[in-house]
TrEMBL record:
Protein name as catalogued: O-glucosyltransferase rumi-like
InterPro entries: CAP10, O-Glucosyltr/Glycosyltrsf_90
PANTHER family: GLYCOSYLTRANSFERASE, KDEL LYS-ASP-GLU-LEU CONTAINING - RELATED
Residue intervals passing through the bilayer: 26-48
Species of origin: Durio zibethinus
Record's keyword terms, sorted: Membrane, Transmembrane, Transmembrane helix
Length: 516
């Protein structure tokens, strides 16, 4: 700490207007997160950039926040310098290798959102053994590519073809991370699988003779597997179906939400998607409104080929927040659509999922979304919508809690910070010296974007749109510690209890209807 350094320190007292923490003892971490919300929610006219402050002391119901000691740093941009069309594009050799941030003490940075705690859980299988080269090599059974970072440069060895541009935009995302935090990622090798479903079965790695599980990155996991979850490609754009980078979509949806108030929206549950990827979705379609029945569901089939031919006019995501309730149902695995649905301000009705992505595990039923049964979808949907229309205030709160989560905790800065911490924690476990394998090529933003072609120019457009302009002048947020086993158990119990509670309400609702 910089005592006596002569840097100005301003003290600011924010009284808490209600005892916020009845349930359990408070950690500084939760308080910090709380403060960010209190300040953000409470003082829209008096905006305080909370990233500039940290909690100095905590006395009776008063949080004292003091300004961080800082040194002034000039933002720089790393321009994308492209060679002319007929020359082979190479990577520049003058990328900054380090960059001074303005916060001198990185540990004084705000604590990251709670979902970062799952990084520790995902890495738990290797915590005591570490990660050996043999383990990494064994992940090549299904990997799409191996990504190597050495001395801040990225290299990729391709093993198989990815679906669409999943690999391209995933690698692009990691290259942007390197631009954002130069010199801050360790040397490492990761194996990445861009297919949908997790494959590293934990049951294969039990028993006395079991080998250590291969560490494999992918977009989702489930309770039977050990695959590590990583943000999916669509955060940087899904060029095939014209879904823009997440940053742009968040802005569009925010604007859209402002124009379409919850109360003025259609009082039904909406879903639009491709039902042919999973039985679960076919089953959902049975709940559509017809002359004979109305389960409060309005369901539509997304025909991507037709929409592509029509220039995607019907599939603008920000225009799809016109219903009070929106259904999320998994496809072949988790679905990219989840974050767009949750951002709407509508109540998200989540059909009991099997898979999780990197942020979902921290969301709570009834607080952020409404749980819907998988085995009795229509009745469950009908009840959910009726309940919401009869509890409008609470329903709007649920919608708002989810959209605030998307806007605040899932903003792009945190996506990069999540990748940063996941890769750094992973790097700490490596027991071997990473090396560049034969057949790997160096990749950088220039090589990927300068001459990117295809998909009617959307590939290049989305890359330019999501390009990180230059190094961050602030440090990443501080990763929270792992869950205490008791706290994790309590968290999971709370989730299960909420779901049980809704099932009880639902049962009561149908019993009373049938009596009439
Ligand atoms: C916090 O404030 C109290 C009361 O002013 C003081 O006794 C205590 O030493 C302070 N703690 C720290 C860590 O500064
Ligand atoms: C509690 O707060 C009051 C009012 O701000 C202050 O006068 C008092 O000293 C505080 N008590 C402690 C133990 O810090
Ligand atoms: C690139 O090559 C093509 C044909 O090979 C030629 O017509 C074109 O003028 C060249 N462009 C530049 C910028 O050199
Ligand atoms: C995967 O690793 C094994 C063992 O190291 C090796 O024999 C095999 O060629 C690798 N497969 C691929 C696709 O690289
Ligand atoms: C473990 O390996 C030993 C020696 O190869 C073998 O005798 C034993 O049956 C194995 N145990 C299991 C559970 O596979
Ligand atoms: C919301 O809309 C109102 C008018 O419709 C406008 O004055 C206000 O600036 C908008 N707010 C945001 C955050 O876009
Ligand atoms: C569901 O019902 C609506 C209203 O009748 C209709 O427009 C829509 O096409 C139906 N969806 C499906 C998948 O049949």
């Amino acid at each position: 700490m910089l005592h006596g350094s002569g840097l100005a320190r301003h003290f600011l007292e924010i009284p808490l207007w209600r005892p916020p923490l009845k349930r359990k003892p408070v950690t500084t971490a939760t308080l910090l997160v709380l403060t960010v919300f209190l300040v953000a929610a409470f003082t829209s006219s008096l905006w305080i950039d909370t990233s500039r402050f940290f909690i100095e002391n905590l006395t009776n119901k008063t949080i004292i926040i003091s300004e961080k000691p800082k040194i002034p740093i000039k933002k720089i941009e790393i321009p994308l310098i492209c060679t002319s069309e007929n020359q082979t594009q190479t990577c520049p050799t003058n990328y900054p290798k380090t960059f001074q941030t303005e916060d001198l003490d990185p540990s004084s940075n705000p604590v990251c959102p709670d979902y970062f705690r799952w990084i520790h859980e995902d890495l738990l299988p290797w915590k005591s053994s570490g990660i050996t080269r043999d383990m990494v090599e064994r992940a090549n059974r299904t990997a799409t590519f191996r990504l190597i970072i050495i001395g801040g440069k990225a290299y990729v060895e391709n093993y198989r073809k990815a679906i669409q541009t999943r690999d391209v935009f995933t690698i692009w995302g990691i290259l942007q991370l390197l631009r954002k935090y130069p010199g801050r990622l360790p040397d490492l090798e990761i194996m990445f699988d861009t297919e949908d479903r997790p494959v590293i079965k934990s049951s294969d790695y039990h028993g006395p003779n079991a080998t250590g599980p291969p560490p494999l990155f992918r977009y989702c996991g489930d309770k039977e597997t050990l695959d590590m979850v990583f943000p999916d490609w669509s955060f940087w754009g899904w060029a095939e179906i014209n879904i823009k980078p997440w940053d742009s979509i968040l802005k569009d949806i925010k604007q859209g939400n402002n124009q379409s108030k919850w109360i003025d929206r259609e009082p039904y549950a909406y879903w639009k998607g491709n039902p042919f990827v999973a039985d679960n979705r076919q089953d959902l379609l049975k709940c559509n409104v017809s002359d004979q029945q109305d389960w409060n569901a309005r369901l539509f089939i997304q025909d991507w080929i037709l929409e592509g031919q029509q220039g995607f006019k019907q599939s603008n995501i920000a225009d799809q927040c016109t219903y009070r309730y929106k259904i999320y149902v998994e496809g072949y695995a988790w679905s990219v659509s989840e974050k767009y649905i949750l951002a709407c301000d509508s109540v998200t009705l989540i059909v009991q999922p099997q898979f999780y992505d990197f942020f979902m595990r921290s969301m709570q039923p009834v607080e952020h979304y409404w749980p819907v049964r998988n085995d009795d979808k229509c009745k469950s949907l009908k009840f959910a919508v009726d309940w919401g229309n009869n509890h409008k205030k609470k329903a709007q709160e649920i919608g708002k809690a989810a959209s605030s989560f998307m806007q605040e905790q899932l903003k792009m800065d945190y996506i990069y910070d999540y990748m940063y911490h996941l890769l750094n924690e992973y790097g700490k476990l490596l027991k071997f010296e990473p090396r560049i394998p034969e057949g790997a090529v160096e990749l950088c933003s220039e090589v990927m974007a300068c001459h990117a072609e295809g998909l009617e120019g959307r590939k290049k457009k989305f890359m330019m749109e999501s390009l990180v302009k230059g190094p961050s002048i602030t440090n990443p947020c501080t990763i929270p510690p792992p869950y205490e086993p008791k706290a994790l158990a309590a968290f999971v119990r709370r989730k299960i209890n909420s779901i049980m509670q809704v099932k009880k309400w639902e049962k009561g609702y149908w019993e009373s209807l049938n009596k009439q």
